[in-house]
Amino acid sequence: MTDAPATIFANPAASPFGRRQRRARGARVPVSIVTGFLGSGKTTLIRALLATPEGADTAVIVNEFGEIGIDDALLRASSDTTVLLGNGCVCCLMRSDLQETLRTLYAERASGAVPGFRRIVIETSGLADPGPVLQTFASDRALGAEFHLQSLVAVVDAVAGAGNLARMEEARHQVALADRVVVTKTDLAPPNAVAALTEAVSRHTAAPVGIAHNGAIDPAFLLDDALDAPHPAAHHHHDHTHADGIASFTVFFDRPLAWPVFEQAMAVLTGLRGADLLRVKGLVAVEGCRGPVVVHAVQHTAHRPVELETWPTPDHRSRLVFITRNIGQAQIEALFAAVAAL
Amino acid sequence: MAQTASSQAGSLIWNFKEIAHHTLDGFGGMGEGMSMQLTKDGRRILWLAHESAPKNFTAVDVSDPRAPKIVARADLPEAHMRSNSLETVGDILAIAYQTQRPGLQPAGFELLDISVPENPRRISYTDCSGPHSRGVHQLWFADGETIHMSSGAPDFVPTHPKDDQFYRSFDVRNPSKPSEIGRWWLPGQKQGDNEPPLKRHPDGNDSGFRPHNTNVYPDRPDRVYMGYIDGGMIILDIADKAHPKMVSRWDYHPPNVGFTHTVVPFFDRNLLVVSDECTRNDGADWPKLVWIVDNRTEENPVPIATCPLPPVETFARRGGRFGAHNLWENLPKAGCWKSDTIVFGTFFNGGLRAYDLSNPYQPAEIAHFVPQVAGAPTGACQLNDVFIDDREIVYTVDRHVGGLYILEMDF
After folding, report:
1. Which ranges in B26-102 belong to alpha helices (H)?
2. More reliable by pLDDT, A76 or A209
3. A47 is in which domain, residue-wise?
4. CB < 8 Å to B271, chain A
């Protein structure tokens, strides 16, 4: 008998984060979430997306069929909760909870019961706080093995958006947590109102802001992976702190981090202040790794880190976007420096 | 243009991008021989075996994978033969010839000089015909020195007509004069063996005891990894090439319907990836699987998982066969892609599928390609084989009419 070698797993020293990926989503189904208040133009934006070549083969999850305005696009009902649209798209009613809806849709695709959609767009209800939805995708036990959160898009309309942001905490949360913000209905508002709204939005988030024209925007702005190409280094990264104590800032590290340093610093943060760590996302240059490691955490829950094959930018510095409540950039930087010094 | 027309309408594509499709000018019924020649003038020529007569092989220039061009093709001399398997090393092309019935000719293997791909020239032909032989079904040619094959022989009398082929190896260092090195068969397969004849598989499921693929890798030049059809998986020790010895055998049929096809070792992982071949339509021999086998203890291979397939309820009735067949074999040659994490297999109407083996206990499907094949006689594609080059371009062929599909990995 020969001695049995230890393992049938790949050598973890060669690739500590598993198979290197071309992109953060790997082979998973990309999911884009569109939030925004009632009347902000979410439905119009999604309907316009579905009509583009880039939007073909999309499965849309909505709360009510009426919301997506499918009447003219309805081809046939595939089940009580799913209808087939044109352009290879599917519209699916939200069941009792999002996880069940997504799992059913995934199984129906495998069995051929619905067309082979290539992405999912979720239209949330107006008042929804995106936090719990983000957590749905965070762990493999939930949906993280099959689905990848590609982008969280907040829709703000130029007519009522400024008022909502001023009065409604949910509206501020939606903007603060978003990867991208779309301003709609600019044709209905005076030009100075659009500028004022854009300025108001930028007080709540460092995320890119796009202007929709006739209810539509470049499909890539809705669908591209926010983690593969995070905010460029040149982006201003002063604190965006507002009345709720929510701040958004980007932290850079000039030198690669040892992975245990990153892990332990994050463990301290989530252990002591997890509830206030609304979102952390970005690329980490990890000692010994060829590509950057994509990280994403929502409150206490961290997504599985993924090592990319190559850096998407010439700048190979770690960059992490923090969206926090009453935790400042200086505190975060001090924590990482202290852990790294040990 | 027909040769680059997209087949995407009606196709199921996930995490692949189809970049070209060539129907091979009406002769798109392809076998399980796919090999890439890197020519001295810098071209990549993909040599493809046809499933059946009248065509022998077709050579396609895939230097630009978006614009494949046929550069050579040949007919078979007889309608009662096929050249289902081929391999290239450098400028030599080896082709297996098998006849429909024992006793016919030509049944053997041919070596061709393809230094000018447009003008293949015979170097030698080795006869393997005989009163009980159909010739060569498959050959493995990777190191330029030895061909390992599943073949009959003039002097081999099987105990059952379906067991006519066995493991043979030939020294082809002098390609004009191949010489036999070694033989091995399952004890009881040949008349005159001391062991009793092999017990047949029941209920009309007797496909025979003989090798299908006979893979040998530079990582372990002393091993042959064989799918032995109804005999399961067999590993041979060929440290003494003239006297092969069996190291281990894993036979899982019955209860499963036989037809073990290919064994691909992932050496760094101590894993074997083993494929069945589905040979019957409409799910009659279901399940036909790709197995993941723990080979840490070579004498005792242990199956630990199978690669998940789409629901049999949906696919078995799509037309033709549905189940495993060929795997990407990590061909140990220049220009070939290699992985010990990702498995690619063709599953007839289940298309081409890729699996991530990061967790070998839970293979996860990461990509599939199920083309809509115009004019498919069974009503669905029958993807038959797959080849992957070191540009990460994936080539797959249809068994009946679809020809060659060229894809990019997108995962």
Report:
1. none
2. A209
3. 29-223
4. 8
